[in-house]
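dude i think i finally got it to work??
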Amino acid sequence: MKSISNINCLFSKAGSSLLAVCLAAIMLLSSCEKFVEVEDPPHQLTDDKVFTSDNSATSAMLSVYIAMMNDQFGNSGSFVFFSMSSLAGMSANELTWTQNNTTAPTFQEFSDRKLTPENTYVYSFWRDGYKYIYRLNAVLEGLKTATGMTEDVKTQLGGEARFMRAFCYFYLVNLFGDVPLVLNTNYQENMLLPRAPAEKVWAQIITDLKDAKGMLKAAYPTAERLRPNLYTASALLARAYLYTGKWEAAEQEADGIIQSGVYGSNLPALNTVFKKSSAEAIWQLQPVRANSNTTEGAQFLVLGTTRPNYELTPQMLSAFELGDNRKTEWVGFSDPLNNPTWAFPAKYKAGTGALTEYYVVFRLAEQFLIRSEARAMQGVTKLTAAKQDLNVVRGRAGLLPTLANDQPAILTAIAQERRVEFFAEFGHRWLDLKRTSKVNAEGLYPVPGPEMRANPKLEQNAAYK
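look at this
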């Protein structure tokens, strides 16, 4: 098991250097051509040559995306993709694990909301987050001394790395609260870092995202939306401002995306949202494993009339209003006649086979709801505009405009809309419950036991002492 210090030591060795990561990325590019079209760097490379050409430096950055998509759920983790959708979905009472403790006791801890520091999936969130942060720090350090690269590519990669580091820290700080703030690859400095206050981590997230916005262009660097652009950074920045109570700034960021025209003037049909050609997608990631689409498609979908392993709870099913087309389009039933509660998430509809779906990481509907909530929080003068944004999302689902009229009622309606729009999707519901103080101290996950034993400067979260 690898602590932060173990991860830093691992990547400092020649066998696991950034060069090795870069070469691994190059080998995978043949199956992931849409990430970027580059010529292979020279066959023989040394670490100090990774950042001497646009091609090899780009491959180093691509290796992070590929690793996120190549890691398996479980032993290697998937950080915030299926792990957040399923495990945080259990924490939020969206999903229940229908098997037994013998089959998967660590799953049962999430389903029962009784986590322990030794839970291997909790450890995967922490370990994999810092694994990617290390690689991103290595990219940023390499770019500082890069020679032979064009300024445009250097700037683009610097923006991507800062965005991705903020992305990783966003989930770490939301899941664990105070976390070590690692901003370089010096393992001797990082191996015994204490937990930084959450406020400091949030400040770094916002700084990285503002820097990324200044470095990224509105145009995507690929034909598809598989690498971040300016609006991708803005999407996460809008969310960060919302989570930290900066209402005017959240409204401004979301408004910039909506008004850009890049993503259309209306939300597209529900059955297109999670396709690889999704018009709503602000940022996607492409699955890279052979003959596979998303892990959600592989794990959530049920063939035949068997009971789902990941079953939507009665509370989640009853949250949909009568006539909500999201329940029709995004919820599956494996045995509707005999077992009408055997329901499962069906946003992604392809498990194996030809690649038809990409992970949709950020999408336009969230920006409407961010802008709606940010406007409502600013008081009476913006309540009408807040309702208009809310009704855009409701209208796409086939629902009538909200009847809410005052600030408390509108905020309640927005929270409800987020619940049914983002169920089983990147842990949105769990993070919403946490940020609005709807859960107690156990809203934070425990600091993993292996980290506590490796670093005596870490303190455990209060609910797990």
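Residues 5-46 have pLDDT under 50 and may be disordered.
im so relieved honestly
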